[in-house]
């Protein structure tokens, strides 16, 4: 079981949870109080040309915490994740990684990014795709192969190590991409709709696997989803975004112990309450 800690720093968000919100009751987050957040975004704005995409976005992700970005299509979730990963720059506002301004943060190898599209290289086998991040870290070949195989086993694709990406189904491709992001054992994992192409049963398995790995490494996870139930099952806190321009509407804690199953009554109830908010 995960430790249950009430994080005193948790109020350091621009948009505090709405008082009386069913999701913000006294809850646990696994972030460790007293240490800098793994990710902190303050008053961030972003335009693409004339299009205002993100307005005054502020939130933090504590170390070892799992935070979901939940919002409608086009509200700027991928853009926000690209900014946190350093691939895209904001117009203004602050981004800190492990307590340092992102511009001074050097250890980007510790940050894994699972993109919305799988980005598998068609000329590499599945195993070679998974091993890609390790090449950049100059990990010796034999170790690369061993770790890539272990990651493929974790996502149930060991039998497809030598296959080419075009020989995989959509769900298998996204599991291969998940293996590629896990193989580097990131301290911070950014994931953009990682499970959206999976059938419900595989998705549940992947949720359990992800939580197991996260607890083992105490990794920090910031992930994007459209799926309210997925956010409730996985996240310690949920950043609810509203569209045009993308803004933080609310940051809600998920007041449920783990493990959480989609079939649990409490999970179903929290999902229902959050769906009501999303549709408001
Ligand atoms: N490189 C770009 N140049 C111009 N406009 C862009 C660019 N990237 C995204 N946009 C626009 O920014 C807005 C937000 O896009 P983004 O991909 O961040 O949304 P999203 O919330 O991830 O959507 P979805 O849930 O459909 O993936 C959209 O209107 C999109 O058209
Ligand atoms: Mg997106």
UniProtKB/TrEMBL annotation:
Biased composition regions of type Low complexity, renumbered to the chain: 11-22
CDD domains in the record: ABC_NrtD_SsuB_transporters (cd03293)
Keyword Cell inner membrane assigned: no
Gene Ontology molecular function: any one: ATP binding
UniProt keywords, alphabetically: ATP-binding, Cell membrane, Membrane, Nucleotide-binding, Transport
Domain ABC transporter: 39-270
Segments of this protein annotated with the region Disordered: 1-27
Family: Belongs to the ABC transporter superfamily.
Name used for this protein in its record: Nitrate/sulfonate/bicarbonate ABC transporter ATP-binding protein
Species for this entry: Achromobacter aloeverae
């Amino acid at each position: 079981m995960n430790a249950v800690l009430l994080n005193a720093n948790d109020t350091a968000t621009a948009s505090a949870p709405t008082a009386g919100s069913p999701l913000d009751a006294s809850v646990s987050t696994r972030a460790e109080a007293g240490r800098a957040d793994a990710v902190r975004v303050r008053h961030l704005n972003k335009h693409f040309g004339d299009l205002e995409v993100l307005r005054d976005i502020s939130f933090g992700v504590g170390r070892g915490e799992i935070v979901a970005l939940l919002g409608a299509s086009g509200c700027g979730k991928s853009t926000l994740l690209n900014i946190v990963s350093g691939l895209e720059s904001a117009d203004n506002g602050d981004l800190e990684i492990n307590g340092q301004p992102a511009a001074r943060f050097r250890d980007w190898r510790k940050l894994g990014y699972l993109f919305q599209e799988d980005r598998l290289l068609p000329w590499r086998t599945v195993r070679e795709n998974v091993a890609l991040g390790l090449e950049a870290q100059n990990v010796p070949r034999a170790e690369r192969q061993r770790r890539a195989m272990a990651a493929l086993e974790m996502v149930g694709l060991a039998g497809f190590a030598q296959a080419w990406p075009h020989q995989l189904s959509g769900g298998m491709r996204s599991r291969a991409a998940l293996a590629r992001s896990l193989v580097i054992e990131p301290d911070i994992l950014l994931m953009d709709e990682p499970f959206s192409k999976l059938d419900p049963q595989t998705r549940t398995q992947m949720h359990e696997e992800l939580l197991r790995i996260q607890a083992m490494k105490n990794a920090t996870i910031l992930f994007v989803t459209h799926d309210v139930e997925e956010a409730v099952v996985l996240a310690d806190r949920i950043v609810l975004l509203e569209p045009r321009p993308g803004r933080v509407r609310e940051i809600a804690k998920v007041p449920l112990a783990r493990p959480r199953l989609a079939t649990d009554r409490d999970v179903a109830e929290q999902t229902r309450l959050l769906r009501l908010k999303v549709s408001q």
